[in-house]
Design goal:
This protein has helices at 3-26, 36-54, 57-79, 88-105, 108-123, 125-134, 137-156, 173-197, 203-213, 215-228, 233-258, 263-287, 304-328, 330-343, 345-357, 363-388, 391-414; strands at residues 200-202, 292-294. The chain is mainly alpha-helical.
């Protein structure tokens, strides 16, 4: 191995060890802190370097020696009256030794990510404990259902294509359920953020979290809130607009996962729409009062029933968009996109991304379908606000959504195919 590479690996190990050690020092760990962690991480690097010459037993020996030292230290603390020595620091030390060794035998980027993740997990102890306390029995049950969705159901589904005819053989149960896992996981992440922040958060965070979970559900909740809470139209409009803005970031993220090869061709016009809606949200923020907003209760998005319904919706949209292209051409595609967007934007996003990755439609058609669906979704949410919301909220949303709709029309008309 080149000398410069060895010095670089030791420098990375030193930096990662200092990062984790600093956190343990601030937490007043009795076992290891600012000096011990970098030493242990560099010991891992040295052990891996020696193992390349003398065999892997050196790494095993270093690991066991470190474990023995920690065991002896724990026994001393127990005899000194420490009734709860804990295991966090000990585990982190062993893991950082492994990170140091992996720097030599594996990929640097992986080692850096793992080492950084250790520091973040140690730092977020209060937030993680708060999250565990906020999650009730029903929430825990739903999280377990997500485990069932992703780790039990997915592996047993057939990875074969089915359909009512040869032209419509596009339904792959494994692929469809994998995309369901993707969407449910994204929504579940927003739900966990909601649980961390609790009932009282800023309007900006409320809108972002609402967009991650469900912009339509957020629109319904805040439209009703505008009538229940006097003078809340400005904040409600801001949250609804922000939730609708997050949709474009969500669509781009889904496209990047499902069709990474075509992402750079699909994303730019969607990024323009994201920028436009961010500017509109900024205007909504300036017109609203700067105060906290009570977030309405959100249901856990990982319920098995919800996942199954989304899978059925996605299958219907996929069949519809394939059949429309087969029998009616591109005009049929846009009709399906508009109808789908009224109900759910994720289904058409997944369908279009999957079809462009398979070469069944062009990238410019894919982003146009997503944009048309998002504009239909704006219309649907405005109808919700008009029916459920207070008059002042309807006026504000009419303005903000009209600007967003106009931006979408402009992108559709001027963006080159």
């Amino acid at each position: 191995m080149e000398q410069s590479r060895v010095f670089q690996d030791f420098a990375i190990a030193l930096g990662l060890g200092l990062l984790v050690g600093l956190q343990r020092e601030r937490a007043a760990s009795a076992l290891a802190g600012f000096r011990t962690f970098p030493l242990v991480t560099m010991l891992g690097v040295l052990s891996a370097l020696l193992a390349a010459e003398f065999g892997g037993w050196i790494i095993v020996g270093g690991f066991l020696a470190l474990a023995a030292l920690m065991f002896a230290s724990t026994q001393v603390r127990l005899r000194g009256g420490d009734t709860d020595p804990g295991m966090t620091t000990e585990t982190a030390l062993l893991l950082m030794f492994g990170v140091g060794a992996y720097l030599i035998v594996g990929y640097r980027a992986v080692a850096v990510v793992v080492g950084s993740a250790v520091a973040v997990l140690l730092y977020l102890k209060p937030q993680l404990h708060a999250l565990a306390q906020r999650i009730g029995d029903q929430d825990f049950k739903s999280i377990m259902q997500f485990v069932v969705i992703s780790l039990v159901i997915l592996p047993v589904l057939p990875d074969q294509v089915y359909g009512p005819s040869d032209a419509l053989r596009v339904l792959n149960p494994y692929r469809i359920w994998w995309l369901v896992v993707l969407i449910v996981g994204l929504s579940l992440g927003g739900y966990l953020i909601y649980k961390v922040f609790g009932d009282k958060v800023g309007a900006v965070v409320g809108g972002i979290v609402g967009g991650l979970i469900s912009s339509t559900a957020t629109t319904v909740s805040y439209a009703r809130r505008s009538r229940a809470v006097l003078g809340s139209a400005g904040l409600s409009a801001l949250v609804i607009m922000l939730a609708s803005t997050v949709l474009y970031a969500r669509v781009m993220a889904i496209t990047a996962v499902v069709s990474p090869a075509s992402f750079l061709r699909v994303a730019p016009p969607l990024a323009v729409m994201l920028a436009a809606t961010i500017l509109i949200s900024a205007a909504a923020w300036r017109s609203a009062k700067r105060e906290t907003v009570a977030m309405p209760e959100h249901g856990n998005p990982s319920e098995l029933k919800s996942a199954t319904l989304f899978a059925l919706l996605f299958a219907v949209v996929l069949l519809g968009i394939t059949g429309a292209k087969q029998y009616f051409g591109e005009q049929g595609l846009f009709a399906v996109a508009a109808l789908s967007g009224l109900i759910d934007l994720d289904a058409i996003t997944l369908s279009a991304s999957q079809m462009v990755s398979q070469g069944k439609i062009e990238a410019h058609t894919a982003w146009q379908l997503m944009l048309v669906a998002s504009m239909a979704n704006l219309i649907f949410k405005f109808v919700i606000v008009a029916v459920l919301g207070e008059r002042a909220l309807v006026r504000r949303i009419a303005l903000w959504f009209a600007l967003a709709f106009a931006a979408g029309m402009m992108v559709l008309s001027v963006w080159p195919s």
